[in-house]
Fold this sequence. Notes:
Chain A is mostly beta strands. Helix content of chain A is 0%, strand content 60%. Chain A is built from no helices and 11 strands. In chain A, the strands form 2 sheets. In chain A, strands 2, 4, 5, 9, 10 and 11 form a 6-stranded mixed beta sheet that branches. A 5-stranded antiparallel beta sheet of chain A has the order 1-3-8-7-6, with no helix packed on it. Chain A is globular, with a radius of gyration of 14 Å. Chain A starts with a strand and ends with a strand. By secondary structure, chain B is mainly beta. Helices cover 0% and strands 59% of the residues of chain B. Chain B has strands at residues 4-7, 10-13, 18-25, 31-37, 44-50, 53-57, 64-70, 73-79, 87-96, 103-107, 111-115. In chain B, strands 2, 4, 5, 6, 9, 10 and 11 form a 7-stranded mixed beta sheet that branches. Chain B has a 4-stranded antiparallel beta sheet with strand order 1-3-8-7, with no helix packed on it. The mean pLDDT of chain B is 91. Classes of the chains: A mainly beta, B mainly beta.
Amino acid sequence: SQKIEQNSEALNIQEGKTATLTCNYTNYSPAYLQWYRQDPGRGPVFLLLIRENEKEKRKERLKVTFDTTLKQSLFHITASQPADSATYLCALDDNNAGNMLTFGGGTRLMVKP
Amino acid sequence: ETGVTQTPRHLVMGMTNKKSLKCEQHLGHNAMYWYKQSAKKPLELMFVYNFKEQTENNSVPSRFSPECPNSSHLFLHLHTLQPEDSALYLCASSQELAGGEGVIQYFGAGTRLSVL
């Protein structure tokens, strides 16, 4: 069955450093991968989408890579700020249904001033 | 705001109560979803509606009953719930990207449900 793994341990970094979060998947051949941000008590908010034929995507301080050979995506936040503290979820399209996504468990990022 | 509104934000109910969660989207999307999010677990998809028709029921117990009267509104009717049903219930809507290259989902803020 399809499986997505994100590091369940919180990632603690110092303000100004680059945060790198990992999303690994198995038994999947996704056409695209997405990253969402979720703050406590709120729903996830879409950040970036990267397609299977794209190696890298950038948006302001965010960068996502997608390696379909390793079955892995990396999510980078450069020059991190305390306001970046949140849980970040990766999501992949479901092979069997075009408008459905499967979400990973998320990684909590804490950026300390 | 994401354009998806959920009410109530918080709900406490006993196991014998009947209550309903409401979701409304102002984005003109064609698909709506209910998810359950429990502590330390990934989002669990419960139901999917496309153009008001239910297209997915992810083996959800019958004590959860969805209703989609139109493309903008989605309800989740609750009855005889169990304490393990306590969780954050999230509604989302989506529209397909141009060229059929996937969907982006827009979430409401959720209803925090506690079953006593």
